[in-house]
Design a protein that fits this description.
The protein is mostly helical. Helices cover 66% and strands 2% of the residues. Strand 1 and strand 2 form a beta hairpin.
């Protein structure tokens, strides 16, 4: 059967709608060629297996092989007399349906739009899939370009946000580890306080009464000092040495043991507080490696006015204080120049780990869902024009869910158990880092990735609550 007989031997004269019809024919042919390329590029399919059953003008069924289909389409594209016939359009649509059955779930529209979003892989004058997609769905070119730029921006923002989250998570992990060092020290301090109290009680009972008014006045002043301070005064030649000697304070093994523990604990507290102080002034340098090098580059960029990476939250370089009298040897655990730094660092870590990081990871989850869906559609040629507004709305939806879930979920876990046992009747030391955890970030990440599931859960919860109220 010739091409003209296939599409009608007596073509109707061209009407006023012939020009739009020819454009539609060209678009159909371009779409058929896109579908043929999709089948040919699939290693599991063969274009030679394509067959089409079509009726001839006499109403008899006829089988069209792929070779015959190509000939018929070429005749229509070449501009035969049957070019404008409705039957030619019907044949092309039947060929299109047969090809779509081989490319499912992709269709001519999704394959063309995917090619427009992916961009041209050949030169501009080549007859590429991008060029054919423009012939088939030319009005989608602008939408596809916006969609492509939006996804590139979304990917760049997701990468930036992931780096920021990793940066802040490292900061929180380091701060939490430094605060955890103080927990066993607080437990040891509670035990030591009881031991010093019992030791002072036994020493005061064993001290003979003072002789004379002046001695009584000096002894009463000396008794105001803690036992380990008296022990240190007895070891240093001062004006108070005679007072301590008048109290018959001798260096017993128990005094040396308790006061030795006191000095060691004071040194441990000072080192821990010094680490927290360093954390507050230059934590990237404390971590070292890539973080330290990044911090130096950021400070340099800020100093020269290059603000390209100035978004990284790096504190300015500062000189640590010497520590004052508490840095010297022989000081008790009650003296420390950095004694309050933990109460400054802990709230900051709590705020970041409870709200900033959960919200950030929730947004990352939302962006990851959109990017993963876009990647899947590109790989399977199932990207459609409606995916552009859907992606925008899905990002907004994920951000809103992340913000709501980060407020609903708290990362407070309560105080942790003391590391060492404390004496009977003594309250355990309150852990400053028992409430610091990153579990809320994981929950908000899942909520951002599965925003639809969160809304279904909320809808179910609302229905149950109101049903209970009605009952």
């Amino acid at each position: 059967m010739s091409g003209s007989s296939a599409v009608g031997a007596n073509p109707s004269p061209r009407s006023s709608g012939a020009q739009p019809r020819r454009k539609y024919l060209d678009a159909l042919i371009a779409e058929i060629r896109i579908l043929s390329r999709a089948v040919a590029n699939d290693p599991t399919k063969r274009v030679s297996d394509i067959k089409l059953t079509w009726q001839d003008p006499q109403g008899r069924d006829d089988t069209y092989t792929f070779r015959r289909i190509v000939k018929e389409v070429a005749d229509i594209e070449a501009g035969t007399s049957a070019r404008d016939d409705i039957e030619a359009i019907g044949l092309l649509q039947a060929v299109k349906d047969e090809l779509i059955s081989k490319t499912q779930p992709a269709t001519g529209l999704t394959i063309a739009y995917t090619a427009l979003v992916a961009g041209s892989q050949r030169t501009l004058d080549a007859e590429s899939s991008y060029w054919l997609a423009q012939q088939a769905y030319g009005n989608l070119t602008r939408t596809a370009n916006r969609h492509r730029r939006f996804m590139y921006g979304l990917a760049a923002f997701a990468l930036w946000l992931a780096i920021f989250a990793a940066w802040e998570a490292t900061k929180i992990s380091l701060g939490k580890s430094l605060l955890e060092v103080l927990e066993p020290l607080r437990a040891q301090q509670a035990v030591l306080i009881q031991d010093k109290f019992r030791l002072e009680e036994s020493i005061d009972k064993a001290t003979p009464p003072a002789q004379g008014p002046a001695a009584a006045e000096d002894v009463s002043f000396a008794t105001l000092l803690p036992v380990c301070d008296r022990y240190r005064l007895a070891r240093v030649p001062t004006d108070y040495q005679k007072v301590v000697a008048g109290m018959h304070l001798h260096s017993s093994p128990e005094i040396r043991e308790v006061c030795g523990r006191d000095e060691v604990l004071a040194a441990d507290f000072h080192r821990a507080h010094l680490g927290l102080q360093h954390f507050g002034t230059d934590w990237p340098g404390q971590v070292g490696g890539l973080y330290g090098a990044t911090a130096k580059v950021v400070r340099w960029s800020k100093s020269v006015g290059w603000m390209l990476i100035a978004w990284i939250p790096v504190p300015p370089s500062a000189t640590l204080p010497s520590g004052g009298p508490c840095a010297s040897a022989g000081v008790g655990s009650g003296c420390d120049a950095f004694g309050d730094v933990e109460f400054q660092v802990a709230p900051v870590i709590q705020a970041i780990s409870s709200y900033i990081l959960p919200f950030t990871f929730g947004v990352i989850g939302s962006l990851l869902y959109v990017l993963l869906q876009h990647y899947t559609d590109l790989r399977t040629n199932t990207l459609s024009p409606k995916e552009f507004p859907v992606s925008v709305l899905r990002v907004i939806l994920g951000v809103v869910v992340a913000a709501c879930v980060s407020l609903l979920i708290t990362s407070y876990a309560g105080p942790s158990a003391p590391v060492q046992p404390v004496p009977t009747g003594t309250s355990p030391p309150q852990a400053l880092v028992g409430s610091l955890t990153l579990s809320a970030s994981g929950i908000t990440f899942l909520a951002g990735f599965g925003a639809e599931a969160v809304f279904r859960f909320l809808q179910t919860l609302v229905e149950r609550v109101f049903q209970m109220q009605k009952a």
